[in-house]
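ok trying again, last paste got cut off:
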Amino acid sequence: MGISGRGADSGRKRTRTAEKGDLFDVLPDELVVAVLCKLSASAESPANLIAVLVVCKRFNRLGLDPVVLSRASAESLAVKAKSWSDFSHRFLKRCADSGNREACYILGMIRFYCLRNRRSGLSLMAQAAIRNHAPALFSLAVIQFNGSGKSKIDKNPEAGVALCARAASLGDVDAMRVLGHCLQDGYGVRRNLAEGRRFLLLANAREFATFLHSSSSSSSPLRRHTNRCGSLLKDLDLWMRSTPPPEPHPASRFMEEWFASRSEVLKREELSLCFNSRCGRPETRRHEFWLCSACSLVKYCSRACQATHWRSSHKAECEPFEQWLNVAAAAAAAAAGGGEVEAPVEGDAGRDVPILD
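nice, full thing came through this time. structure:
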């Protein structure tokens, strides 16, 4: 059967287009950018994004488009401390200038804590916080609670509570926990035991829900345990005893690696790292962080980090139960009698842990 004239012309046009170049070349830039946006938002490592940029000149040009960089995921911006360079710094800055919240937060934390450029770091974290980035809001709250980068008299617990409240409203578990203790203790806010308890229970409930979701697979050892026990209370006990802390944010991983290779510098300046290893924050001045009042051997940047470290390891390493329980009771009595208690009592699914001094 013969081919019609119009069909033959169409076939010849497609042939000529293929002969002149790849069909990819005729795709509009807008379509390629849209595809790259999806890729950058779902990338699981910087290598995923870099592998695309080196494919061809067009991918390199469009892959660095501000729209693409603004959608890049936190994991695609997860720079390793040992690989830190001017190129890494410029790339994160370019992403931050494109409006990427994660880049603003990661670069802000690096500048504030690692490079000690406090003003610039705060500015970048504030840009992320304005865009409702919960970890940035909580980090700014920690800075306000501790007076980080300044002196002890520059602590601002009221501002810290306000920032925690905003981060908690966005679902940040650490912020919920700290806000709950502040409300229970009247630290930076009017004391409200019932509301504080509600936030502590909400934080634990969210963590437990994450635990159940992560163990929902039938092949999971945790799910097999759940099926065997068939009890929500036993599930809760398993969560309390064996669930690892959540994966740290790329900014925390960077700081942990950065200061691991600079421990001598911190030691010389008599500065400590937060003992929650998944945090990575260092002190910005001597005696900035909070001490565990039971053993006086570990320090934390916040009550959230204390709760995480307590559940993961410190509970087995700290002073005997009776001793730190007496300390907590004495502090509660002092608070009831009008004495000043600077830090609230920590809680772990209804179980108190030592006070932070």
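cool. Residues 86 and 92 are 10 Å apart (CA to CA). DSSP finds 18 helices and four strands in the chain.
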